[in-house]
Amino acid sequence: MSPVFALAVIAYVIATGLALAYLIQRAEVIHRLASVVIVAGWVLHAVSLLRLGLELGRPPLGTLSEALSLAIWIAVGLTLWLERASGLKVLGAFVLPVVSMLGVSSAARGLGLAQMDRALTSAWLWTHIALALIGIAAFMLNFAGAIMYVLQERQLKARRPGAFYYRLPALETLDRLTYRTLALGFPFLTTGLILGAVWAGRAWGSVFAFDPLAMLSFVAWAIYAATLAGRAAAGWHGRRAAYFSIVGFAALVLTLGAGLFLPGRHGS
Amino acid sequence: MPLFVSGLNHRTAPVDVREQLAVDEDKLREILHDVQATSALSEALVLSTCNRVEVYGVADVPGEARAVCFRMLCRQRGLDPARLEGALYTHLEADAVRHAFRVAASLDSMMVGEPQILGQVKDAFALAQACETVGPTLHALFTQAFAVAKRVRNETEVGRHAVSVSYAAVELARKIFAELGGRAVLLVGAGKMGELAARHLVEQGAYPIYVANRTWPRAQEMARALSGTAVPFDDLPTALGAVDIVITSTGARHAVITHDMAARAVHGRGARPLFFIDIAVPRDVEPSVGSLANVYLYDIDDLRQVVDANIRERAREAHRAEGLVEREVAKFLARLSDVEVVPTIVSLRARLEDIRAGEVRKALARLPDASPETRAAIEALSAAIVNKILHVPITKLRESSRAGAARSWTQVVHELFGLGRAAGGD
């Protein structure tokens, strides 16, 4: 693993600590410090991705660890942008733990170790991976928004304001956040999965072929599809939509975990 | 010359003493002029609100200055000065700075974080300035106190979180609906507190406002007062489906809004949240309404609980603000004491530079054939020696000022180098 990527992951872990400290303390200094560390980590991360790509002579998406690393990078970028655009300063405290967790597991598996079968690489493949990754990044934020929604909703229903009542934004703000991130992530994940299936069909002659990641990813997709349909058609909002988002993300993490640690065609 | 603050506040003096001592602006003007005439204080500012009467000043003998000021205040109000004994506190130097910062930042207020005090301090400062009793020390102190108050307001939440039931309801509404602009409100009943909460919502942009009342003329009257629309009491179930926030404050003996009624309204409105604020006792909304999806129901006890939680949250934030004030006090004192030693450093440098320039001139006069290189070397050599000699004394002076011993050090330096009158020794 490249030391630059290790540094980036360390920065994310430190930023997670700072973001959580900000959630508790709400001292402006801590938030500024956290922002600096995140940006530093993000830039280091970009450098490591670039270097890896140049070294391998192909997009740094060949293994699932590499792909995960890029997904994290996109998610962190989205978080930085959203925090600035919407003034939602506590967002980091809910996204970064997931980022750190995935970052550490990606780092643990190592990057750029596996030799790609030249015959298997194609523009189709890269597009399949890249699109799915943007979807996954958006769902990281979707998950963070859903967690915040559930916490705030509980406080308001219980009629006893606790720590989260003061720290989290309004329910409608959070509902909008989860809806928008869902609407952003879903088309990317869908297109990514379709391309993957088509490509798998051409390369191996079958769409699923007992690959655990492929199977599970369709489960996650189905959950997100149901959430989106529920929101768009049945007017689901609030708690139910938030619960579905959380379950969907759990399925997604399970999918990635299966890909990272179980043998299969997506294996590292 | 020492800075001091002396006075009494809501914690040290009962209200009858405070109200007797509180003085209006004209009287304050007189007192400030009298104070100026006594020459017991070189600078003075009097802050008089319903919760505190304080004199901020700079005086050689703060104890005497305090006695003079409060004698005047008591005479002005016909109060026996003996009654103030025990109620008066006095803080000096660093403690006085801290006190000024805490008062301006509303950390010393009866209701911590209340916003009026800063304006009152600003008025007192403006008045003292108009009376020309503000000198450099008080000017620096209060300019900084206003900056600290602003920081506390911006960086902590000590002034946020409603401490009244009607405002707590508005804040809750904002935790459900991010924006209150364009939210429809239904006011049921004519209770005072309900009207107040509705008014707060209107101020936040809530619109339109519907008013329902069993007495039709009363509904119309209230609707006019709130620029809203009166709706017949029987249309309540329909109205429920069309609004986002419902405030109830009727005198009815039984629930006006039943579970069934609310459930039907919720069913018809998709998943938009519906917020019930029930201020009536006995309650107007059946408690089970609160268990409906996307419905939030707060009765008067719930709102009081929220207010209590808000007050606790303010106290936690006040604790954070105290730390901020503490750091600002240290910074202010450091700057103030730097100001004390800077004139000495400047004149010390000037003195040595005079000597150096004079000696270099003499030496060069004796060396008419010296090349430009030699002249430059002599200049550089002498300048280097002066700088080396000055380095330690200047460092020591700065350190001494931070340790609070600036005065004795500046005096020694003035004596040793014959710098004339010692700064700060007057």
Mean pLDDT of chain A: 86
What portion of the residues of chain B fall into strands of 2 or more residues? 5-15%
Q: What is the total number of structural domains of chain B?
A: 3
- In percent, how helical is the residue content of chain B? 55-70%
**Rg of chain A (C-alpha, Å):** 19 Å
Structural class of chain B: alpha/beta
Give helix and strand order of chain A, one letter per element, not per position. HHHHHHHHH
Q: Name the chain pair with the biggest interface and residue counts per chain.
A: A-B, 25 and 28 residues
Architecture of the largest domain in chain B, according to CATH?
2-Layer Sandwich
Distance between the termini of chain B: 9 Å
Radius of gyration of chain B: 33 Å
Question: Order of strands in the sheet with the most strands of chain B?
Answer: 7-6-5-8-9-10
Number of domains of chain A: 2
> For the terminal residues of chain A, how far apart are their CA atoms?
13 Å
Explain what you see:
The complex is a heterodimer of chains A (268) and B (426). Chain A has 268 residues and is mostly helical. Chain A folds into two domains: 1-116; 122-268, no CATH class. Chain A is built from nine helices and no strands. Helices cover 57% and strands 12% of the residues of chain B. Chain B has helices spanning 15-21, 25-38, 62-77, 93-104, 116-130, 136-155, 165-176, 192-203, 216-225, 236-242, 259-268, 300-365, 372-402, 406-417; strands at residues 3-9, 43-48, 52-58, 89-92, 185-188, 209-212, 229-231, 245-248, 274-278, 295-299. In chain B, α8 (192-203) links the parallel β5 and β6 (209-212). Chains A and B meet through α5, α7 and α9 of A and α7, β10 and α12 of B.
